[in-house]
Amino acid sequence: MTTCTPISDAIGVAVSGLSTEDFRTPQIADQCRELLHRHGVVVYREAHISDADLVTFSRALGEVVVAKAGAHPDYPEISPVSLDPAKSHLAGLRRSTIFWHADGLMDAVPQKATLLTARDVADDGGDTEFANTYAAYGALPEARKAELSAHRVVHSVAASQLLLNPEPTPEQRAAWNRSPSREHPLVWRHLDGRHSLLIGATAGEIVGMTPEDGRALLDELLDWTTQPQFVLRHRWTVGDLVVWDNTGMLHRAIPYEPTSPRLMHRTTLVGEEEIA
Ligand code: OGA
Ligand code: MN
After folding, report:
1. Between 208 and 68, whose confidence is greater?
2. Burial class for 254, CB neighbours closer than 10 Å (0-12, 13-18, 19+)
3. Does the Cβ of 264 fall within 6 Å of ligand 1?
């Protein structure tokens, strides 16, 4: 029997009782799309989805990103997520996943959703937290919403890497700067009338503000958004599959040892809605 239980008012729904073959059916994909819209994060407990079914399910939800580097040898759509360089070429860059972020904010159209399934878990740490910026924005006073709507924000690799390494060498800085930065409105006005916030680790400055004032505004919004009522913390069990709406959920990994066995298999869906 499958059960579907909201986790809190603002974020998350848990679905239990599905197994890998269920993810081949269009009904489960349709339900997932609806749950993502309503709850932001869908937790399929101990679904033990196979790699082949993860790809099939992801394709049923949208166009799947094929990673340029570091993909699974048999499935180019799947990226192994680990901090262990022996398991993932991107282990070094992934260290910044411990800071609140959304995926792909340096792209013109950020990814629509991300799917992460636990193949192995950490003994200590390694939970994933999510924060719903749709809910956080919705709870702001109207006057504050109006003030925020005028701002634009610059996202860059450098901003997130500076959090780990505040005093980079000129070579390190030059390497970060090879990834182009991207300017977005601070508030994303969606076609369905909802609003989300384009904040997180990659947000480095607010256009037209001093670095200090921009930082203060970004910190204020991040503090507001990551209040407990907007946050879901997921403690992983092997076989869990979590899908999040990347157009409005910030997320972060709780730190864990790079040598821990934690290994996630991840797919991402190409963004469908332009930022406006
Ligand atoms: C990601 C990510 C968090 C985690 O894969 O985009 O941020 O808990 N992962 O591994
Ligand atoms: Mn991420």
Report:
1. 208
2. middle
3. yes
